[in-house]
DNA sequence: CTAGGGTTAG
């Protein structure tokens, strides 16, 4: 060994060491065996060996050895070590070394920016990026995608735009990876138009860029665009993989497009994509959101190696379908199976309790979360609790909870409470809440509508008008209600009093036809403004029809008797329609599934699965 | 040296 060290040049020596001694002990022993070796030579050897380093423990031991040799202040070695630490995902260790280097080279800055971003420490990554720019150093084309990834992770569109400008200045645009990262950043920050602009300008588009775009559409609510873009991708000769399928499944779920979703399920099987837990969860969730709880549950049972997300998704499914007890049972099973819940799981459970009116159970699980699992409740957990308490009429308890929250309540919390005020027609509380609420979110149309409906319930028409004007002044535009129904591999959309469908006359005639038997069953149209508690979708004219009724009429005309009708609605179903659909289900003897903004309503034999608790 | 992904309240 000693002869080796003395005879070979450092590079050859390093190469020899790499070949012969792949593990750290040998390396360290060899170095220790030659105490007379000049320090710079050892440094050189170690640098070369590190390049071949494949084991973290080897790295750590070598690092310790370096300290023993008193080389810790050599920038070159430190840089090498920092880079190695990053490659082993030990960003903290790398960071400590980085701080010790007087003026780190550009490359190390880039490596650190990448390292932090990869580790999910987006703020640190961007902080470093800014510091690097301040020093007049330019990030390289490998660092930009990571800086953009950090912006995407933080949904920081403003910073993303700035970095976009920088990279153009640095001449790093028109690079496949940089552009793909740009597309992804814009898509994740919700600026889908900007994403599309970059995407369209790309000379070359790989599967990843397509997938980023598709996922951007899906996650920003452009559901039919998602499906369209997927077809476009296939048309352009790019073969999808399981990742791109996930976005498409999401879109199907959002649209309630069961047939399309089923098609993708079989597509996954036919093409032989790996049917891993992510794909299984996505398909399961799609089935559930399309109203097919049975299929979702089947898949859940068949899926081996269920993880937290998979369990949570199934719990959420029971929740939106109104099966609170089953959601709770599943939660208990999950815990028994040794899977530790997180705040999302509890959001699912609490929301399930809320939809099913399981007040005591909800309280118990909230307590379980904080006390037994020691999970700090997030805003979403508080929102569920406020909703649970409020719905059940325990308004003051809900207020207590909000006042004692350790975090600042946001608009959604007050919104929950306002929703409860509407159910219980509590005007005093509603007015107090509205102040907070409109301060936090002045342009939210839904909250204004809620308040206006509470006034209307008390026949306070002047105030109703005031709220209306307030909305106009603030530019809080009402969201148009619509209902979706899948037919013949298409998703059809019906708006309020829609006459755009070729069959529109038939649809209205069908509703007319139903009017008599409905009346016979005791239906009284609730023309009172109060119950048209959804956005503007009502009150247009006596002849206007809510979108879900048109969708139902369409389904009745175009499907064979007995077929379940599935409707997806963007807003909350109104009380009048809820009454009407119950009766329709009885008259036509059909199951009518309506998914509104919050949950499923399964109408059958004149009753709804929500038990009118919604 | 780089990348895209499944669950969540209102």
Please provide a written account of the structure.
With 614 residues, the protein is mainly alpha-helical. It contains 32 helices and six strands. Strands 2-1-3-4-5-6 form a six-stranded mixed β-sheet, with helices on both faces. Strand 1 (482-487) and strand 2 (490-495) form a beta hairpin. Helix 28 packs antiparallel against helix 29. The radius of gyration is 30 Å and the shape is elongated. The N and C termini lie far apart (80 Å). Residues 529-543 have low confidence and may be disordered. It binds one DNA strand of 10 nucleotides through helix 6, helix 8, helix 10, helix 12 and helix 14. It comes from Vitis rotundifolia. Pfam families: DYW_deaminase, E_motif, PPR, PPR_2. Belongs to the PPR family. PCMP-H subfamily. One of its GO terms (molecular function) is zinc ion binding. PPR repeats lie at residues 105-139, 206-240, 307-341, 342-376.
Quick rundown:
The protein is mainly alpha-helical and 614 residues long. The chain is built from 32 helices and six strands. It has helices spanning 2-7, 10-20, 24-32, 39-51, 56-68, 75-87, 91-100, 106-118, 122-134, 144-154, 157-169, 176-188, 192-201, 207-219, 223-235, 242-255, 258-271, 277-289, 293-302, 308-320, 324-336, 343-356, 359-372, 379-391, 395-403, 411-423, 427-440, 445-457, 461-474, 504-520, 547-558, 575-588; strands at residues 482-487, 490-495, 565-569, 592-595, 600-604, 607-608.
């Amino acid at each position: 060994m000693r002869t080796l060290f003395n005879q070979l040049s450092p590079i050859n020596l390093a190469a020899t060491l790499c070949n012969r001694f792949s593990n750290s002990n040998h390396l360290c022993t060899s170095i220790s065996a030659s105490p007379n070796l000049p320090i710079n030579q050892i440094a050189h050897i170690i640098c070369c060996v590190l390049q071949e380093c494949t084991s973290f423990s080897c790295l750590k031991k070598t690092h310790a050895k370096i300290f023993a040799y008193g080389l810790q202040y050599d920038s070159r070695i430190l840089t090498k070590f920092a880079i190695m630490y990053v490659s082993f995902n030990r960003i903290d260790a790398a960071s400590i070394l980085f701080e010790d280097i007087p003026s780190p080279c550009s490359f190390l800055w880039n490596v650190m920016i990448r390292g932090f971003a990869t580790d999910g420490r987006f703020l640190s990554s961007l902080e470093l990026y800014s510091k690097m720019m301040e020093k007049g150093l330019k990030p390289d084309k490998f660092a930009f995608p990571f800086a953009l990834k950090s912006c995407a992770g933080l949904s920081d569109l403003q910073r993303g735009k700035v970095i976009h400008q920088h990279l153009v200045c640095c001449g790093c645009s028109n690079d496949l990876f940089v552009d793909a990262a740009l597309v992804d950043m814009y898509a994740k920050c919700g600026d889908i138009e900007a994403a599309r602009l970059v995407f369209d300008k790309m000379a070359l588009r790989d599967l990843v860029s397509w997938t980023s775009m598709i996922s951007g559409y899906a996650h920003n609510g452009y559901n039919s665009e998602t499906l369209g873009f997927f077809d476009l991708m296939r048309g352009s000769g790019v073969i999808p993989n399981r990742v791109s399928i996930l976005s498409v499944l999401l879109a199907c779920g959002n649209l309630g497009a069961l047939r399309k979703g089923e098609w993708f399920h079989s597509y996954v099987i036919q093409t032989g994509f790996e049917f891993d837990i992510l794909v299984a969860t996505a398909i399961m969730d799609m089935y559930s959101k399309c109203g097919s709880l049975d299929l979702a549950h089947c898949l859940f049972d068949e899926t081996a190696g269920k993880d937290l997300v998979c369990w949570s998704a199934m719990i959420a499914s029971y929740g939106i379908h109104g099966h609170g007890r089953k959601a709770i049972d599943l939660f208990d099973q999950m815990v028994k199976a040794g899977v530790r819940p997180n705040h999302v799981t509890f959001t699912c459970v609490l929301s399930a309790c809320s939809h099913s009116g399981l007040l005591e159970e909800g309280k118990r699980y909230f307590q379980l979360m904080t006390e037994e699992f020691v999970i700090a409740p997030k805003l979403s957990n508080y929102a569920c609790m406020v909703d649970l308490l409020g719905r059940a009429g325990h308004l003051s308890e809900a207020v207590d909870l909000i006042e004692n929250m350790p975090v600042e309540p946001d608009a959604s919390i007050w919104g929950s409470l306002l929703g409860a005020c509407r159910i219980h027609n509590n005007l005093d509380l509603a007015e107090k809440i509205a102040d907070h609420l409109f301060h936090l979110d002045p342009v939210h149309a839904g909250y204004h509508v809620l308040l206006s409906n509470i006034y209307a319930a008390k026949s306070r028409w002047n105030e109703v008008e005031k709220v209306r004007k307030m909305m106009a002044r603030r530019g809080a535009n009402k969201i148009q209600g619509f209902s979706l129904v899948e037919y013949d591999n298409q998703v059809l959309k019906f708006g309020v009093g829609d006459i755009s469908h070729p069959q529109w006359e038939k649809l209205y005639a069908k509703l007319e036809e139903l009017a008599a038997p409905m009346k016979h069953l005791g239906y009284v149209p609730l023309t009172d403004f109060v119950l048209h508690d959804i956005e503007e979708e009502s009150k247009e004219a006596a002849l206007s029809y809510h979108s879900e009724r048109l969708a139902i009429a369409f389904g009745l005309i175009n499907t064979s008797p007995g077929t379940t009708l599935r409707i997806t609605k963007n807003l909350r179903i109104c009380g009048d329609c809820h009454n009407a659909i119950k009766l329709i289900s009885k008259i036509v003897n059909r199951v009518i599934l309506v998914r509104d903004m919050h949950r499923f309503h399964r109408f059958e034999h004149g009753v709804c699965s929500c038990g009118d608790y919604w």
